[in-house]
Amino acid sequence: MADSERGVIRNRGYATQIRDFSGLRFGNITPTDVDGLIEYKGKGYVLIEIKYQGVQLPPGQRLALERLCDDLQRTKPTLLIIAVHDSDGDIDVAKTLVAEYRFKRKWRTRDGTIRELIRAFLGHLDAPW
Fold first, then answer.
1. Hey, how many other C-beta atoms are within 10 angstroms of the C-beta on 46?
2. CA geometry: angle at 109 spanning 105 and 46, to 5°?
3. C-beta of residue 36 within 8 angstroms of C-beta of residue 47
4. pLDDT tens, 6-50?
5. Which of 91, 89, 84 has the alpha carbon at shortest distance from 113?
6. Ranges assigned E (strand) in the chain
7. How confident is the model at residue 3 (pLDDT cuts 50, 70, 90)?
């Protein structure tokens, strides 16, 4: 696969299929998803969740992602980004705006795009100690 094809949706039909998790209910817990995951050179992780502008992250999903981020942080630097978009069509994830992010067990805010925040984080991971 050419580098220019990496990350591009190759099969729109599969990408638009709805996943029904209703049969996986355990008490009041059902599965959640993560919109994006980057494992960077064995040095750290980036978790990405994207919501439509004005839509809140459900409390259960927020708690699950927060716990996952904190658990991963115990082994490697981990960044969890909650971003927003207002597109009715395809979403250019790199250009979505950061609503908040979690790093080192704390929620923080920052203006800018996902791409800008991830570049800063990866730069930190690549910096000599």
1. 22
2. 55
3. yes
4. 767 677 777 778 888 889 999 999 999 999 999 999 999 999 999
5. 84
6. 36-40, 44-52, 78-85, 97-103, 106-108
7. low
The identity of residue 12, as a single letter, is: R
Residue type, 72: L
Q: Which residue, chain included where needed, has tokens 């999903």?
A: 61
Contacts of 55-64 with C-beta under 8 Å, sequence gap 24+, read: 55/84, 57/82, 60/28, 60/29, 60/30, 60/32, 61/32, 64/32
Amino acid present at 76? K
Longest dimension (CA), the chain: 48
> CB 40: neighbour CB atoms within 10 A?
16
Distance of CA 97 to CAs 23, 44, 56, 126, Å? 33, 22, 14, 24
